[in-house]
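Sequence, structure tokens reproduced for reference:
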Amino acid sequence: MFAWEQRKVSELADRYDNLRVPITASERVAGETPYYGANGIQDYVEGFTHNGEFVLVAEDGANDLQNYPVQYVDGKVWVNNHAHVLQAKEERADNKFLTNALKHTNIEPYLVGGGRAKLNADVMMKINFKVPTLPEQVQIGKFFDNLDHTITLHDQKLNLLKLVKQSLLQNMFI
């Protein structure tokens, strides 16, 4: 077991903002590729800007500064200019670990601007946090991924049970 070391985002990930392409709603061609903005999926379109495992971090237009929008994506995605695109350096970091590390970092002190807070790319790349060895990162990333999956399953089950309850109540009081 090794001590966790302080690392900057720039040491752990490469940035692929140069591949982002914004398209207005009227110019989008409907398709199956998720079209991402600052707060997640905005639409589904034809084509893609990025293909692979990435971490998307809101650049501007985040709707929740306390739970700052950070998402793990895998596969073909179209990213507009309101989300930064990071990819963990294979020999240094795990994308799922990086996602969770950024999700649990207070981003507010790094934001600039008045009404529409912005996370500047250079500032984002200087954000520091502690990281374990790569094998430990992979294990932690898998753990949180499994936890998120379990939570989603329980949410779906809860919603189904709420529908059953609503249906039973309606049938009881006709």
